[in-house]
């Protein structure tokens, strides 16, 4: 490949996000915090537009390091959109004395750079760098509520386990390099094709492959590598939990999809059983444990595990159809998760925790995030009730919402591969899911409770409505999105 | 037939066996008369006091982090310097290579300098000295009186 000096001029989103992150850090020196939020949103919009400049073309950047094609642009778009929505829900940070919004926003933008690398990597080194940029940012944001012991605990747990998983990932990459002599995805793919045809031992390759997959499955919180998820999602500030459960998951699955489809599709027969077992475990553990949660936020953590399971079904049924399916599912899941967390933050902020009520276990948390907090919400706040109800329906996969089509597309991708027994488990577990998602809806509409009218900032309201409208629109007209890919 | 990794594995095995053998050999030969002084941790001649797991002032960590900033800079700039000055590359591109490499290095250093400027502006580089507050007591006794008392009963300085 010839040396191209114009390379770096076209990989715009990464460069723009890095620069705007630095700019935000220095904006933070101003006395007033009013400018930070609009500036961050503006930067995200610019990056979003820049991302789609190359639409319809396929480029390889930085000497075969990063690939940009339509699929990568779609995933990047989903990630940027999710971040935009999460950031626009963060208005209350400006009033919080302990918070440092400039740094938070800058870290969010930096972590997006890592996410985009994970989406478009062509070289395993890029994957590693991307995973690390995203993870380190997440460790910090998890512990950003410095005076909350639970937040500290979550950050430490996440850091220790994440560092361990990164080690396994790196080990896998090293073994793959040892087996194939290449870090490039297509090079590894060629080796897998030719070596399986030639016969002979591929032990090193397989061990490396599984270590890499384990590292990645940890990052997307698939069982049995999910143990960190409930504590971390529960302990982190809700705003960053929303970010973690959408952006990190989307980027992680984009990366898994890329490496499985490019490098490991030649040895599909070897890994699909293992992935199917992981999928079933994830679905069972995620859904059944979610039933027993008393805290809504903790339920959302287990729900994110179970959604990782549904996304894994798309990977087990790896085909051309699973690419748009996973992209669509990520979008549908992100929209409804962010809307749900948006409502949760409003409700919880309105109910500072009465420590005496819940005993010792939750006194460390600042706000009440239990199901009971939602009792009678819809009566005084019909909008919030409706937003929450639609997002719960979408997460449960009820028709006329985006979540239904997401599940449908992922399932049909797997059905083409003939993994019917997997679908039976998945459908059963969706039925379990309906139970715990509807608990919130029942609490909001049918329970008595003293909820006052919650004041919602206009922009916050617009974002919540937009997420709901998008969820419904994609549910009615899924072709809108499918036509893009 | 051994692969390259097999040779590595043999090398590691040999290393462990060699070290283990040497230690065992030494144990067999040497006289064994432990005393308390011999068994304490060697701390450059200092007498160890207390536990090793003491808490350090967080300021040290900040200094260490800023140090890493410049360490990383050096790690890149040394190899950069060797490539930057290569006459063949410069001749091939008609001098363009030099400017290109210089620009890249400047971008890199500027980003690191921004990091330093950020830490500086945030006040992380200020080494805050502890400022002891002398307690003031509302009393009618003038402080000079204490000094006089101290002066009178001063212990004679030994020559």
From TrEMBL, chain B:
<dbReference type="Pfam" id="PF00507">
    <property type="entry name" value="Oxidored_q4"/>
</dbReference>
<protein>
    <recommendedName>
        <fullName>NADH-quinone oxidoreductase subunit A</fullName>
        <ecNumber>7.1.1.-</ecNumber>
    </recommendedName>
</protein>
<dbReference type="GO" id="GO:0030964">
    <property type="term" value="C:NADH dehydrogenase complex"/>
</dbReference>
<feature type="transmembrane region" description="Helical">
    <location>
        <begin position="96"/>
        <end position="121"/>
    </location>
</feature>
<keyword id="KW-0472">Membrane</keyword>
<feature type="transmembrane region" description="Helical">
    <location>
        <begin position="60"/>
        <end position="84"/>
    </location>
</feature>
<dbReference type="InterPro" id="IPR023043">
    <property type="entry name" value="NAD(P)H_OxRDtase_bac/plastid"/>
</dbReference>
<dbReference type="GO" id="GO:0008137">
    <property type="term" value="F:NADH dehydrogenase (ubiquinone) activity"/>
</dbReference>
<dbReference type="GO" id="GO:0048038">
    <property type="term" value="F:quinone binding"/>
</dbReference>
<keyword id="KW-0813">Transport</keyword>
<keyword id="KW-1133">Transmembrane helix</keyword>
<feature type="transmembrane region" description="Helical">
    <location>
        <begin position="6"/>
        <end position="25"/>
    </location>
</feature>
<comment type="subunit">
    <text>NDH-1 is composed of 14 different subunits. Subunits NuoA, H, J, K, L, M, N constitute the membrane sector of the complex.</text>
</comment>
<keyword id="KW-0520">NAD</keyword>
<keyword id="KW-0812">Transmembrane</keyword>
<dbReference type="GO" id="GO:0050136">
    <property type="term" value="F:NADH dehydrogenase (quinone) (non-electrogenic) activity"/>
</dbReference>
<keyword id="KW-1003">Cell membrane</keyword>
<dbReference type="InterPro" id="IPR000440">
    <property type="entry name" value="NADH_UbQ/plastoQ_OxRdtase_su3"/>
</dbReference>
<dbReference type="GO" id="GO:0005886">
    <property type="term" value="C:plasma membrane"/>
</dbReference>
<dbReference type="InterPro" id="IPR038430">
    <property type="entry name" value="NDAH_ubi_oxred_su3_sf"/>
</dbReference>
<comment type="function">
    <text>NDH-1 shuttles electrons from NADH, via FMN and iron-sulfur (Fe-S) centers, to quinones in the respiratory chain. The immediate electron acceptor for the enzyme in this species is believed to be a menaquinone. Couples the redox reaction to proton translocation (for every two electrons transferred, four hydrogen ions are translocated across the cytoplasmic membrane), and thus conserves the redox energy in a proton gradient.</text>
</comment>
<comment type="similarity">
    <text>Belongs to the complex I subunit 3 family.</text>
</comment>
<keyword id="KW-1278">Translocase</keyword>
<keyword id="KW-0874">Quinone</keyword>
């Amino acid at each position: 490949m010839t040396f191209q000096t114009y390379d770096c001029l076209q990989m715009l989103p990464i460069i723009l996000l890095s620069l705007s992150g630095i700019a935000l850090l220095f904006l933070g020196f101003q006395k007033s915090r009013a400018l930070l939020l609009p500036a961050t949103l503006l930067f995200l919009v610019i990056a979003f537009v820049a991302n789609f400049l190359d639409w319809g073309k396929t480029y390889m950047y930085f000497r075969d390091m990063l690939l940009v094609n339509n699929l990568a642009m779609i995933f990047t778009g989903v990630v940027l959109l999710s971040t935009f929505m999460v950031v626009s829900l963060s208005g209350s940070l400006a009033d919080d004395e302990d918070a440092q919004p400039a740094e938070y926003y800058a870290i969010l933008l930096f972590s997006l750079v890592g996410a985009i690398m994970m989406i478009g990597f062509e070289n395993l080194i890029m994957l590693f760098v991307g995973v690390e940029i995203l993870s380190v940012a997440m460790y910090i944001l998890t512990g950003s509520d410095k005076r909350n012991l639970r937040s500290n605990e979550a950050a430490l747990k996440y850091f220790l386990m994440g560092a361990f998983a990164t080690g396994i990932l790196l080990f896998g990459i090293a073994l793959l390099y040892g087996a194939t002599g290449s870090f490039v995805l297509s090079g590894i793919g060629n080796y897998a094709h030719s070596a399986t045809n030639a016969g002979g031992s591929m032990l090193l390759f397989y061990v490396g492959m599984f270590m890499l997959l384990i590292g990645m499955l940890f990052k997307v919180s698939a069982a049995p590598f999910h143990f960190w998820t409930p504590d971390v999602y529960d302990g982190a500030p809700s705003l960053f939990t929303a970010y973690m459960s959408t952006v990190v998951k989307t980027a992680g699955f984009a990366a898994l999809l890329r490496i499985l489809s490019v490098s490991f599709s030649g040895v599909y027969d070897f890994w699909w059983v293992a992935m199917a077992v992981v999928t079933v475990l994830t679905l069972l553990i995620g859904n059944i444990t979610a039933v027993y949660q008393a805290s809504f936020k903790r339920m959302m953590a287990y729900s994110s595990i179970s959604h990782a399971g549904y996304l894994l079904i798309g990977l087990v049924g790896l085909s051309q159809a699973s690419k748009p399916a996973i992209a669509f599912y990520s979008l549908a899941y992100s929209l409804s998760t962010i809307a749900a967390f948006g409502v949760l933050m409003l409700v919880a902020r309105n109910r500072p925790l009465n420590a005496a009520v819940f005993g010792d276990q939750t006194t460390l948390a600042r706000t009440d995030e239990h199901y009971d907090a939602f009792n009678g919400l819809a009566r005084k706040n019909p909008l919030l009730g409706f937003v929450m109800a639609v997002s719960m329906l979408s997460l449960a996969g009820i028709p006329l919402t985006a979540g239904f089509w997401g599940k449908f597309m992922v399932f049909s991708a797997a059905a083409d591969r003939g993994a019917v027994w997997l679908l039976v488990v998945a459908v059963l577990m969706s039925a379990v899911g309906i139970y715990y998602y509807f608990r919130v809806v029942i609490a909001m509409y049918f329970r008595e409770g003293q909820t006052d009218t919650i004041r919602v900032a206009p922009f916050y309201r617009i974002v919540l409505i937009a997420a709901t409208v998008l969820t419904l629109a994609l549910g009615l007209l899924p072709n809108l999105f499918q036509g893009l890919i | 037939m051994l692969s390259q990794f097999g040779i590595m594995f043999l090398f590691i095995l040999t290393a462990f066996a060699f070290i283990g053998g040497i230690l065992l050999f030494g144990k067999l030969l040497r006289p064994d008369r432990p005393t308390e002084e011999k068994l304490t941790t060697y701390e450059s001649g200092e007498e160890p006091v207390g536990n090793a797991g003491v808490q350090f002032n967080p300021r040290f960590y900040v200094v260490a982090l800023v140090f890493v900033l410049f360490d990383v800079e050096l790690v890149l700039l040394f190899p950069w310097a060797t490539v930057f000055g290569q006459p063949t590359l410069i001749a091939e591109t008609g001098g363009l290579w030099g400017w290109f490499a210089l620009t890249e290095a400047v971008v890199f250093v500027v980003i690191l300098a921004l990091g330093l400027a950020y830490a500086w502006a945030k006040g992380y580089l200020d080494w805050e000295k502890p400022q002891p507050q002398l307690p003031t007591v509302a009393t009618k006794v003038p402080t000079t009186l204490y000094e006089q008392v101290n002066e009178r009963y001063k212990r004679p300085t030994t020559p």
